[in-house]
Every structure is written in C-alpha cells, then in structure tokens.
C-alpha cells in the first residue's frame, strides 16, 4: 500500500509539474507574440519635486495589455522574459518608445523632462548595450543628458567587470545612472564609491510606514545623509500620503514618486497632465 501511495503522490506531483510547465510555455508563446507584434505598452510615472509638485521626469514602466484588455504588470512577465531572452527585444522596444515619447513632450515645450528606463541585469551581458541605447537616443534626436538608466542594487553588489565597464560608459556618454530599490540588498556600501552613480532611489518598503515607524525613519534619514555626503541625487519611491511628503521634506529629501502624485499611466494621460497644469501636479497636500 505504501508503494501505491507513493506512486499516486508521484503521479499527482508530475501532473502538477506538467500543468505548470504547459502554462509557462503558453505564457512564453504569448509573450513572444506580444513582443513581436509590439503590443506591449509603456506606461509612465512622474518623478516630482516634493516642494511645489513640479514634474521633473518620467519613468517608463512596461505593461502587457492582453487582447481582452487586462493589464499585466512587469513583475509577472519580466522574469519570464529574462529566462527566455525576450528581455532583449522587449527592452529595446521600451527604450525606443520611451525616447520618442520624451521627444514629443520636449517638443510640446516641456523641454527639461528626463526619462528613466529600467535596465535588467540580463541586458548587461550584451557587449554593445550602451551603443544600442545611444543609437535609440540619437534616433529620437534627444540629448543623452535627459536619459537616466535604472539598475537594481543587485547589479552593483555583483561587482562584475562588464557591469563596471557598462556604468562608466553610460556616464561617459552623458547619461545618468540610478540605483533602484536602494536599501533592500544589504551589503557593503563601498560600491557607491566605486560606481559612477548619479542618483539613489530609496526602496518603497522604507517609505511605506513613514513617518510612524521609527526604524524606517532612521534608515531613511541615514540614506538621505549618505546621498548628501556623496553628492548623489535622492528619490523616494512609493509615496502614498502627504505625511510621507512632509517627513521627507523636513529631512531634506526633495524628490519623489508615488501613487499620491500619479500611478503609472499611458502617455496620453501624462500629456493631459502636463498640458492642463503646466507641468505641475494638480494636488493639494498642504505643503
Ligand atoms: P521599479 O523600477 O522599482 O518601479 C517602481 C514600481 O513601484 C512600479 O511597479 C510602480 O508602479 C510601483 N509604484 C510606484 N509608486 C508606488 C506607490 O506609491 N505605491 C506602490 N505600492 N507601488 C508604487 P511596476 O510598474 O509593477 O514595475 C515593477 C518593476 O518591474 C519595476 O520596479 C522594474 O524593476 C520592473 N520593470 C518595469 N518596467 C520595466 C522595463 O521596461 N524593463 C525592465 N528591465 N524592468 C522593468
Ligand atoms: Mg525603476
Ligand atoms: Mg524601484
Ligand atoms: Mg522594483
């Protein structure tokens, strides 16, 4: 009986594995199709000056809009894209779309807006990544100084020579370089000294419980001091309340992003926002 039971368990297990695998393959197929048809969409989230609420830049965030209209977030397909190599054409599509869109906003008169683009660690293995990026920027007739590349902290911690070369090359071309989700990958901070970073984005997990959580308040204060001492721009991610804005302003963190200002939205909505409010966020939070 014990043997039978084992066999049954195995049978059920293998069915489950099979089902998962079939699901994953179907997803890969659909994602490949979406990338080939360029039916992915790029949403944009404003980066805002906390004092005065001026929009100073946008971050490009990819979405997969299914045929039935459901919008799927990147956390659900970027890992699959990375495992299958689809991340390469996907990223190039995002890059091209975001650069052209930024150019349109510049031409509308919002000529100082910057564009932040997320780069996957998997892309860093491409030997000509910087050239590809620069080609896209040139093709859109943009100055590279308006382009900021965001890399998650993991990439900095790994300390691989090709990564270092990439970062220096990015800076030599006049683009900016941000560390995304800063603070979650605890490690020696010495890499900040070794990499030509221009901006730090405090991970939203530290912002979420401000101002009440004292540990988070101390951590955020420490990151603010660190950025100041290193002369690096600081951006707080995930701002959802005016209390968080007040706290950040009182500690001299002047730039943020979050649902309080705007969720990531399609380009047309950003255009509306820019045109209707002259580049400011229409928000009264008493600061
Ligand atoms: P990220 O670059 O750290 O982007 C910030 C994420 O936080 C976005 O999620 C955004 O919608 C979300 N967010 C912004 N403000 C708030 C807030 O106030 N509250 C909360 N709860 N969330 C907020 P999203 O768009 O789902 O993107 C998730 C991650 O996927 C991004 O994290 C980024 O690492 C990655 N990603 C997005 N687009 C691309 C892309 O084109 N290429 C690559 N390689 N990665 C991308
Ligand atoms: Mg980012
Ligand atoms: Mg982030
Ligand atoms: Mg993230």
From TrEMBL:
EAL domain span: 24-278
The organism's place on the tree of life at top rank: Bacteria
Protein name: cyclic-guanylate-specific phosphodiesterase
The organism of origin for this protein: Idiomarina fontislapidosi
Lineage: Bacteria, Pseudomonadati, Pseudomonadota, Gammaproteobacteria, Alteromonadales
Whole-protein coverage range: 455 to 741 of 741
